[in-house]
Specification:
Blueprint: H1 2-28, E1 48-49, E2 55-59, E3 69-74, E4 78-85, E5 95-102, E6 108-115, E7 121-123, E8 135-142, E9 153-160, E10 164-173, H2 182-199, E11 206-207, E12 210-211, H3 212-227, H4 233-253, E13 261-266, E14 271-276, E15 283-289, E16 297-303, E17 307-310, E18 318-327, E19 330-331, E20 338-341
Antiparallel strand pairs: 1-4, 2-3, 3-10, 4-9, 5-8, 5-10, 6-7, 6-9, 11-12, 13-14, 14-17, 15-16, 15-18, 18-19, 18-20
């Protein structure tokens, strides 16, 4: 009888071990957050309350990745800031990705921003109308190529229409050069399709400023760079520029002009409109409206650059901008509108440079 009981105890012991392993394995396999600012283990990474002093605390049970996040509570409607001074080494040209969760009932626009080593401001506006509740969204702010580094401050402004809480997690930025061939690959698909059409005799015999043979050489050169682009990001960038120019010339000869792709940055008292275009030699016109549907009025015409500043605006109004390009004697359709609103103009005395 004693031995039989002993065997039963052994069976129960091994069953308990198996149950323990089965219940702890999922916990061990939980996704970890490898972002530089991950808010794991109770960390806030030096983030503090700025304007209007929201309540900031670590939430160990809710996260975009891993298990923890930064919980930010606004007790009343208003304009709030969460800031991190001296956030560390971040290179000029680096995008900073921030993940933010808005529960249902929390109505707010947000504006991630950076202040560079000379207190130069750059930000990205995310309007409340574009935010889906009960979902983690990603908002990115760029450290401009011309920014003085290291940056002095990273922050998130919260323009809350209602009291409530949001969560911030997994703030990430590129710390090393990463080669991205996806954009070049997509361009090659377009270019090789156009080339096949032309070779079959359904396209045109030549494109400005050369022949279909030149276009084929451009495509083949880009393909070679793509196939061997494991060493230098610069080679990929060169191939993208070469191929964009070749496609632009080809489409221009077919009277097809692709509109620019616009971006909008919020300044202290206005907006900076910038854009990318396949037509390096094109002339650009920027138009503005108070409605997505228009009508639009030109604020800058036949520009050779790729940026325009609009300071002739009013607080609290939403402004919409489109860009068109003219190249090889043809004009594009307007770009997809970009838009933004400034609730309150910045005051000089509010800038960190002038604080005691």
């Amino acid at each position: 009888m004693y031995k039989k009981r002993k065997n039963n105890y052994r069976k129960k012991f091994f069953l308990l071990i198996i149950l323990f392993v089965l219940t702890t394995l999922p916990l061990l396999a939980q996704t970890t957050d490898e972002a530089p600012f991950h808010f794991e283990n109770g960390e806030l990474h030096g983030f503090t309350a700025g304007t209007e002093a929201p309540i900031i605390e670590n939430d160990p049970a809710f996260a975009y990745a891993g298990s923890g996040s930064m919980k930010v509570t606004m007790e009343t409607a208003g304009t709030y800031e969460v800031i991190l001074n001296s956030p560390g080494e971040m290179a000029a040209g680096t995008p900073i990705d921030i993940h933010i969760y808005f529960p249902a009932g929390m109505v707010a626009s947000i504006q991630p921003f950076i202040l560079d080593a000379n207190w130069g401001w750059n930000s990205y506006w995310v309007d409340k109308s574009s935010i889906t509740p009960d979902t983690w969204i990603e908002a990115s702010v760029l450290i401009p190529q011309t920014a003085a580094v290291p940056i002095n401050r990273l922050g998130i402004q919260i323009f809350a229409d209602t009291p409530g809480t949001i969560w911030i997690d997994s703030i990430n930025f590129i710390t090393e050069v990463e080669i991205d061939k996806s954009g070049l690959e997509a361009l090659l698909v377009v270019a090789e399709g156009l080339l096949a059409t032309a070779v079959e005799g359904e396209g045109i015999d030549e494109y400005a400023p050369g022949s279909i043979t030149v276009f084929e050489a451009d495509v083949n050169a880009a393909r070679t760079i793509y196939d061997n682009a494991e060493a230098l990001q610069r080679e990929v960038d060169d191939a993208v520029q070469l191929l964009e120019s070749a496609i632009a010339d080809f489409l221009a000869a077919k009277n097809e002009i692709i509109p620019p792709s616009g971006r909008l940055e919020t300044l202290d008292n206005g907006f900076r409109i910038s854009w990318d275009s396949l037509y390096a030699d094109g002339l650009f016109t920027v138009r503005r409206s108070l409605s997505m549907a228009g009508p639009y009025t030109a604020i800058a015409e036949n520009m050779a650059g790729t940026t325009c500043t609009d300071n002739d605006i009013l607080e609290g109004k939403t402004y919409f901008y489109t860009i068109t390009v003219s190249s090889h004697g043809y004009a594009s359709e307007p770009s997809t509108p970009v838009y933004g609103k400034i609730l309150r103009f910045a005051q000089l005395q509010d800038l960190p440079l002038f604080k005691e």
